[in-house]
Amino acid sequence: MIQKTYQLKYDLKHLAALVAVGDELNFHRAAEKLGMAQPAVSRMIRELEQRLGIKLIERTTRRVSLTESGSYLREEARAILTRVELSERTAKSFASGTKAILRLAYMNLAGHALVPDIVSGFRRDNPDIRCEMTYLTSPLQRDAVLKNEIDVGFIVGPFQSAEIDSKPVARHPLVALLPAEHPLGGKEVVTVRDLADEPLVLGTTEEWPTLRQIIVNVFQSDGKMPTIAQEASSLTGILGLVTAGVGPTIFCGVPRFCSEPTILARRIATEQHAYVETHMIWKKNRLSIPLKRFIRKADEVSAAYLAD
Asked: Which of 73, 96, 119 lies at the terminal end of a domain, its last residue?
């Protein structure tokens, strides 16, 4: 691919002089506006005309006016100068961390409440920083952080890596989400034995690998195996099957948009309390100013989620 080389015939100061003279139609006032000497402004206008090979300003002893070409170039120059000024402010904002793009990844467990709460608070405090959110499973998030494809991820469970930092941001007990009027809804707490013979609705292995393994481990610790009646890849699909009466599902905490009597949430009692932890991860050598601010906001929001 051939790259074009641009050879400019003038500088921004020439454009600023043209705008000032065109606005004031007076070299003395234009010079005062620019904080320059009048001869310097006159020289820049002459240089601009010579380098372009066109007349931009008509000047007599009585009046100064713009030619048609001068009038057109003045408006273009004004737009260029405004754009340059904006670009400079934006670049400084990026350098100071007040303007940036943060690339976030989340999985189903954190996507319905935790991550939206953190992003909402962060955007309120940092309106010029855009958050780009992408759904990825926990294993894919780990790879994406290592490859610098995302800045921060929210995964199930801790992740040990010499290149990655992490911290817990949520801790939820396992709960059974039951269809309305399900017989187990009469209990305040259900057990693994209660659920062992129930036709469960679970997320697919491809999309829910970590939670699936946690559920299997909990059942096996009680000498049981889950009976899987139906799978779905998304939380929406899973909950839709539950509300349709296909069977219960097992989730960590209660999704914000679930409420009785449509779905009944019951804590699962186990010999050892079964919790699912969400951890926030980021690459150690990419700790930017915006990311530091995001982590601080996550600390504030996660306090309530870790207390559950």
From this structure: 96
129-135/164-179 β-pairing: unpaired
How does strand 152-156 pair with strand 263-269? unpaired
Residue 1, domain member (yes or no) = no
* Alpha helices for 35-182 (secondary structure H): 38-52, 68-96, 108-111, 114-125, 138-146
CA distance 251 to 291: 29
- Do 222 and 193 touch, CB atoms closer than 8 A? yes
How many CB atoms are located within 10 Å of the residue 120 CB?
A: 12
pTM of whole model > 0.85?
Answer: no
Q: Which of residues 96, 124, 144 is at a domain's end? A: 96
In a domain, 200, yes or no: yes
- The DSSP call for residue 224 is -
Tens digit of pLDDT at every position of the chain (308 positions): 445 555 677 889 999 999 999 999 999 999 999 999 999 999 999 999 999 999 999 988 889 999 999 999 999 998 898 888 877 766 766 665 555 789 999 988 888 889 999 999 999 999 888 899 999 988 899 999 999 999 999 998 888 889 999 999 999 888 999 999 999 999 999 999 999 989 999 999 988 888 898 899 999 988 999 999 999 999 899 999 999 999 999 998 888 777 778 899 999 987 666 788 999 999 998 888 889 999 999 999 999 988 75
The DSSP element (H or E) to which 103 belongs, if any, is strand 100-106
Q: Are residues 266 and 300 in the same domain?
A: no
For residue 179, say if its preceding peptide bond is cis, omega within 30 degrees of 0: no
Is there a single domain that holds both residue 205 and residue 179? yes
Its domain, for residue 141, covers: 100-169+277-306
Claim to verify: residue 149 and residue 291 sit in the same structural domain: yes
